[in-house]
């Protein structure tokens, strides 16, 4: 049986009560650089998103789960995106909302749980991640969990400091043919 619970965190579906957390996170300009967000989201738009969050990954090509600590507080989000069932692959992204909660193992547990879900339940052959070259914490996290650097997209992301390179990481499920 698949368990979406780790030692310090668990993953769960989005709930209507997550609106304020989602609003705060999606409108946090400090994460826009990695999320590709260009403008703020209204609560109305985010409520519409939550109203449709129950839709199947095969239909919407995305799965977003809340990362919750053992006190049942939502501390971040983890996504599978660009889900491609024909080629059995998806992108993965993760964010821990509060900078004070980062680098404490919550993201690592969430990544391990989501990879296990993607490989064992969705039967994916591979998962990939796009990480900015200067995001050393994320690079370390993904490498620790077996993601390999397979390429660099030069000057891929435009930021307030200029263009940045984005590294493409990939993890192949060796248990799947």
TrEMBL record:
Please tell me the species this chain comes from: Flagellimonas zhangzhouensis
Is the Transferase keyword given for this protein?
yes
One short Pfam name that applies is Acetyltransf_3
Q: What is this protein called?
A: Diamine N-acetyltransferase
This protein's source sits in the domain of life called Bacteria
Q: Name one GO molecular function term.
A: acyltransferase activity, transferring groups other than amino-acyl groups
Domain (N-acetyltransferase) spans 9-170
In terms of SUPFAM superfamilies, this protein maps to: Acyl-CoA N-acyltransferases (Nat)
Q: Where is the signal peptide?
A: none
Q: Which PANTHER family match?
A: GNAT-FAMILY ACETYLTRANSFERASE, SPERMIDINE N(1)-ACETYLTRANSFERASE
Q: Is Protein biosynthesis tagged as a keyword?
A: no
Q: Which UniProt keywords apply?
A: Transferase
């Amino acid at each position: 049986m698949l368990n979406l619970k780790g030692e310090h965190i668990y993953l769960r579906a989005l709930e209507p009560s997550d609106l304020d957390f989602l609003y705060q996170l999606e409108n946090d300009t400090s994460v826009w650089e990695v999320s590709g967000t260009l403008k703020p989201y209204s609560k109305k738009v985010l409520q519409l998103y939550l109203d449709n969050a129950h839709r199947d990954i095969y239909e919407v090509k995305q799965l977003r789960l809340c990362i919750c600590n053992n006190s049942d507080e939502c501390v971040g989000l983890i996504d599978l995106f660009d889900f491609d069932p024909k080629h059995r692959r998806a992108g993965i992204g993760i964010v821990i909302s509060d900078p004070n909660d980062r680098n404490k193992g919550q993201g690592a547990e969430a990544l391990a749980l989501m990879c296990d879900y993607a490989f064992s339940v969705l039967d994916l052959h591979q998962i990939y991640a796009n990480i900015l070259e200067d995001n050393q914490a994320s690079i370390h996290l993904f490498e620790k969990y077996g993601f390999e650097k397979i390429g660099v997209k030069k000057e891929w992301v435009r930021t307030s400091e200029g263009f940045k390179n984005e590294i493409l990481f990939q993890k192949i499920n060796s248990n799947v043919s």
